[in-house]
Amino acid sequence: MQITVVGSGYVGLVTGACLAETGHHVTCVDNNEAKVASLNEGRIPIYEPGLEAIVRRNNEAGRLVFTTDISLGLRDSQIIFIAVGTPALPTGESDLRYVGAVAKSIGEHLDDSYRVIVNKSTVPIGSGDWVRMLVLEGAKASSLVTVGGGETTITPSFDVVSNPEFLKEGTAVWDTFNPDRIVVGSDNVRAIDLMRELYTPIIERKLAENPQAAPVPFVVTDLASAEMIKYAANAFLATKISFINEVANICERVGADVSQVAYGIGLDQRIGQKFLQAGLGWGGSCFPKDVSALIHTAHDYGYETRLLKAVVETNKSQRIRVIEKLQHELKVLKGKTVGLLGLTFKPDTDDMRDAPALTLIELLNKLGARVKAFDPIVSASGIREGLSNVIVETDAYRLAETCDALVLVTEWKEFRNLDFEKLAQLVNRPLLIDTRNFLDRQVLTKAGFYHVGMGR
Questions:
Q1: What is the distance between the alpha carbons of residues 431 and 449, in angstroms, rounded to a whole number?
Q2: Would residue 286 show up in a list of annotated catalytic residues for this protein?
Q3: DSSP string for 323-380
């Protein structure tokens, strides 16, 4: 199939590259000339395991093309993905400027060939109809053509569907090829059939690699329900994390171990093991803005989301718990040096959006502490946005020098293999706050560290 993906950010790039990998011909459109040039040379602007090789392979094979020309991208496409950013505004609602601009631009370049326009961006409930309206507005402004000395009007033929993504940063390629479900929101049989055809190679690939696997559910809903599924899924996962962090805080007070509690309750099939790791809470690009957007949508319809507001507040307070632990051990933080192991909001990504580390840096600076940090990706990449008040070191051992405390912030696998005896000799005080309960307490204790976890 001929596919167009408008937007070559995280979701658009992963979606386009993986669809090309399954045999489709994909044109990715982006208005950033430098990014497009880089992508056409096989270099990607984000860190995502396995993605760069897929981009380079399919670009060289001619199945994946990057361009700034939307008219070129739409020329022969059957399915058009809108995959641009929808960042949160200060009010909590989603910023839909980019989606709106793309929708109008698509309309301006449509002909009378049937197309399916797919909302891949995470958009508020009701956006499908809004996108359709904007596409028609764009088409109305440019649909007159000269035929035999007169003018005739081309009527665009298209349907808008919702096809939310459920990708996790760090495993996005694997998630694309191994989906839990594929959700398509539409009431048009033709559009649904095209979307089913689009995803058939991925579904068949998963079954070929694991014949014993259950078939991938292809979930067909109305537009609004598909849009709600994305928000509800992320809100539920955020709730699960905030819940286990509440439990962790109680565990500390009663002498229980949250890791054992999480394992015990996770064996209940109604609950499950995933997203029950106590720690610093959630961050990144999805959970914060999606939970906020759902709260804002509910408010628009006169409903107060007490539970989701509590989820957000619990998440905010969890970051402060780390500062409280440092204050308990070091007393006054003014003049102390604190080293952060990890900066990104999760491992296997370079994403710093709403990373808990940024909150810790801000709070520690306010309290007069000197902050140092090391992150396997950030330290090597040169990314320094939001890091003006922190010394970014090139390795964990340089980080440890002169530190009064180390704080494990991001659970990078490399941190389990550090020489903790060497680290203990470099720090001023062998104190380590493990905010993810990630490191082996016995190994740390043997190395000479005083270990403080979460919910233990």
A1: 6
A2: yes
A3: HHHHHHHHS--TT-EEEEE--SSSSS----TT-HHHHHHHHHHHTT-EEEEE-TTHHH
Cα–Cα distances (Å) from 279 to 47, 244, 283, 311, in that order, read 24, 9, 12, 14
**Helix pair 223-254, 287-300: axis angle to 10 deg:** 120
Taking each helix axis from N to C end, the angle separating 97-108 and 127-142, rounded to the nearest 10 degrees, works out to 40
* pTM across the whole model: 0.91
Contact 183, 222 (CB under 8 A): no
DSSP code per residue over 242-311: HHHHHHHHHHHHHT--HHHHHHHHHTSTTT-STT---SS---SSSHHHHHHHHHHHHHHTT---HHHHHH
Residue among 296, 169, 319, 192 at smallest CA distance from 235 = 296
Contacts of 181 (CB under 8 A, 6+ apart): 166, 216, 217, 218, 219
Please give the structure tokens belonging to residue 67. Answer: 């361009």
Q: Which of 18, 28, 286, 403 is catalytic?
A: 286
pLDDT along the chain (456 residues), means of 10: 95 96 96 93 90 95 95 91 91 90 93 93 89 91 55 78 94 95 97 97 91 92 95 96 97 97 97 95 91 93 96 96 97 97 94 93 96 94 80 96 97 97 97 97 96 95
Query: Which segments of 50-126 does DSSP mark as H helices, in order?
Result: 51-60, 70-74, 97-108
DSSP element (H, E) containing 422: helix 420-426
Q: Please provide the DSSP assignment of 196-209 as one string.
A: HHHHHHHHHHHHHH
Cα separations in angstroms, 45 against 40, 56, 96, 314: 12, 13, 23, 33
Backbone angles phi, psi at 131, to 5 degrees: -65, -40
Contacts of 41 (CB under 8 A, 6+ apart): none
Using N-to-C axis directions, what is the helix angle for 258-266 and 223-254, rounded to 10°? 140
Contact of 84 with 102, CB cutoff 8 Å: yes
How far apart are the C-alpha atoms of 456 and 453, rounded to whole Å?
6
CA dihedral of 73, 77, 79, 81, whole degrees rounded to 10? 0
Spatial distance between the Cα atoms of 206 and 213, rounded to a whole number of angstroms: 8
Which residues are CB-contacts of 55 (< 8 A; sequence separation ≥ 6)?
A: 13, 17, 39, 42, 44, 64
Strands 114-119, 157-162: pairing is parallel
